Amino acid sequence: MPRILLIDLLPKAGLRFLHKPSVHKQRERDRVVYNALKDKGIINDLSNATVKHTKIYLQETLVNTFTRAVIERLLRKARTGVTDEQGFYSFFAELQGRVQWAKDMPKAAFIEFIFRLAEARLEFKRNPYTSVKEPCDLAKAIDLFLEDVGDNWSKMTVGFKFFMQQDGQDKEDAEKEKEGDKDKPMVDVSSLGEALDEVAEGANDTAGTTPMDLD
Asked: In whole angstroms, what is the distance from residue 55 CA to residue 58 CA?
């Protein structure tokens, strides 16, 4: 059977991916996420008999991830008085540590995957398919997350865009595609945490601005 890509296993009703046939701008990012899901047994050796089951299991896993994100925002605010937009990097680092399938992923890969899924939902709302009558469960879970975040999404986007700039993904991934180096770490994120949090905190002064596109 043809090779199954990450995007092939994700639901489509209510989501519009901008970088097809990839979820991310660079295919290397899809491979990192795919391998992480495979290592945790969420994606198994695929055949015609198992693809449908894998799609269901993967969607359930991602629905739980976005649900967990809403819970973590509430717990974080209750515990420290600090919300995610005041600590972009640290929030997603904490979230990743509580999501079993993502614990061993590079933080850059986890953060971008979450944002690309949210991006796909927002893009669908801007340019919907008329044939879609009911959004999938993942789309609904993303809606709850975005509703909970509210106007702070634009502030989180500032942190994400800065994160991607520091990550240098376009240049690095192009080099990896050319050289065939699939094992090289994507980014050393250990030095980015404080800078990301400072940028996200500074974005608090821009409350009420129009949400930004991710690209």
From this structure: 5
The DSSP annotation for the chain comes to -PPPPHHHHS--TT---TTTT-SSSSHHHHHHHHHHHHHTTSS-S--TTTHHHHHHHHHHHHHHHHHHHHHHHHHHHHHHS--GGGSHHHHHHHHHHT-GGGTTS-HHHHHHHHHHHHHHHHHHHHS--TT--S--HHHHHHHHHHHHHTTHHHHHHHHHHHHHHHHTHHHHHHHHHHHT--SS-S--GGGTHHHHHHHHHHGGGGTTPPPPP--
User: What is the C-alpha to C-alpha distance for residues 48 and 111, in angstroms, rounded to an integer?
Assistant: 31
Q: What is the pLDDT of residue 47?
A: 66
CA distance 51 to 89: 34
- Could you tell me the CA-to-CA distances from 210 to 40, 51, 55, 152, 173 in Å, in that order? 38, 39, 34, 10, 30
Q: Which two tokens stand for residue 42?
A: 């969420």
pLDDT in tens, 82-120: 555 556 677 888 889 989 999 999 988 998 999 999 999
Which residues in the chain come in under a pLDDT of 50? 170-171, 173-215
